[in-house]
């Protein structure tokens, strides 16, 4: 199920502006990889190229290859819609569909993929996804209520349920806890631990303790300098990045000696 | 690594504020502390309280400065304006009722259900049913034609077209709203009516067994022609409001749909249309309000028909709306009784418009929980 990701020589542009240059990495299936680095260095940008969300922005383009189990998702005959169905995404701010109920939010992706799904089958998947997202017990009595009526942490778990309901092979998370309280953050970190049994997970975080807690490997991104594009400084075992990184810049960043 | 809530709590404090930092944050000394925490250690991070201004410190209760005064003036002015509007509507209603009541009580037939219109003599005998019917039917024709087209154009402008195409299209649509209704009337009867007559003929030949399309031998000045012209007239307002609400769809909703693997059309269905729905309903109601009350264009277009023939279910019949009836007979407002009958008709139009707006509000509010 879970897939391996290889980025080869990615150059990512917003119009003519080269935001991130020369990114290469490999992410193993069923692992958690954390992206860390200062603001504006391109973590979100790189993350969004992994499921072709980058090109949703007008003028945004990508050069290079991004291989999913060896297949280039930027290949000429690849439909970005299919890529996004295979690679789910959770955003920094919880974004349930405001006009939909909790149930419909979770079912939204499934209904896109097979509009003729039986209600009873749908019920099963909705419950399974909400359970996997650790939300079922809190919402099982009000599935018909609007998703936007939940707390921020619940909404974020609802968004995770929505993303995993379609059984993606990779799950991308862009600072999923940054709008949440410590308890909800913990709940989501636990969730990530259990999800990695099935999915390849990439998570952007500004919280280095979080990176250390949830990830096996960590990628450190940085800006080469003012006005220069962002770059991947190094990617390695999380343990090593935080205790004995190869690059000086990484050590400076994680220890707070910076610039 | 220990995982306790308090550990996470410290981590949260250490989190630098999102998005507010410049791209070149790396060179700023302020960053030193923001990134201080190392794995497992829970050294307390600095809480940035010193740069948070404390509002009103030391002046509690003591400040009735110019700002407050301006607030009060503004509050007074705006509630005054609101009250004035309510008063105005009340006065109009009172005027209509006072002038209409004597005529209605003098009416020999039931004012609401009679199909005759005889207001000149000593025993007035009139009813508004045919007027009500034609008004509603012609407006419905206009809505059925205009709303889907307006939604289509609004989606095209806001979702599909590149800016260099979208802007001129939007501009042309807005221009339609600037054309005076008399021009629409003349154009409708002189240019459009002969052009769409073949469509009408074809429909009544092939679907004439449906009462809606039955042929009444009225050429040109039909409810159908009037409805098409009204549709063009209300198109700009519905399009403009639709475009506006579609463009405002939050980026987060749209990206949520994209990320689920939606196609462009599915993004519109999942995120754009639901978000725009209340606005669209309001826009459609504004258009409907205009259609119901449109006078001069309809007066020019619609062929009058005899009392007996005026009440049919067909859009290929002629007839009169409330507004065109009143306009057609403005020359006869010479006795209070006669004028009263027309004012009574106007009152029904007024109530109808009100009811339509109330219904729209109800539709919008019904799912407020989900908005
Ligand atoms: N929609 C956009 N259009 C143009 N430039 C953009 C856009 N989004 C991001 N950028 C630029 O791309 C660069 C990388 O931005 P990105 O959002 O990927 O940074 P980030 O590492 O995720 O930062 P943060 O930690 O603040 O989220 C920045 O210089 C940013 O200004
Ligand atoms: Mg980001």
What does this molecule look like?
Helices cover about 35% and strands about 25% of the residues of chain A. The longest helix of chain A has 14 residues, at about 120-130. Chain A starts with a strand and ends with a helix. In chain A, a hairpin with a 6-residue loop joins strand 9 and strand 10 (about 230-235). In chain A, the strands form 2 sheets. A 6-stranded mixed sheet of chain A has the order 6-7-8-3-9-10, sandwiched between helices. In chain A, strands 2-1-4-5 form a 4-stranded antiparallel sheet, covered by helices on one side. Chain A has one domain: Rossmann fold, CATH 3.40.50.300. Chain A is built from 10 helices and 10 strands. Chain A is of the alpha/beta class and about 260 residues long. In chain A, helix 3 (about 100-115) crosses helix 4 (about 120-130), helix 3 runs parallel beside helix 6 (about 150-165) and helix 4 (about 120-130) packs across helix 6 (about 150-165). Chain B is mainly α. Chain B has a domain at about 125-340: MetI-like (MetI-like fold), CATH 1.10.3720. Chain B is about 65% helix and about 0% strand. Chain B is built from 12 helices and 2 strands; from the N terminus they run H-H-H-E-E-H-H-H-H-H-H-H-H-H. Chain B has helices at about 5-15, 30-35, 65-105, 130-160, 165-180, 180-205, 225-245, 250-260, 265-295, 295-300, 320-330, 335-365, and strands at about 115-120, 125. Chain B has a two-stranded antiparallel ribbon. In chain B, a hairpin with a 6-residue loop joins strand 1 and strand 2 (about 125). In chain B, helix 4 (about 130-160) runs parallel beside helix 7, helix 6 (about 180-205) crosses helix 7 and helix 11 packs antiparallel against helix 12 (about 335-365). The model of chain B is unreliable at about 1-55 (pLDDT under 50). The interface between A and B is large, with 64 and 56 residues. The structure holds adenosine-5'-triphosphate (ATP) and magnesium ion. The site of adenosine-5'-triphosphate has 12 residues of chain A, from helix 1. Magnesium ion binds near residues 44, 174 and 204 of chain A.
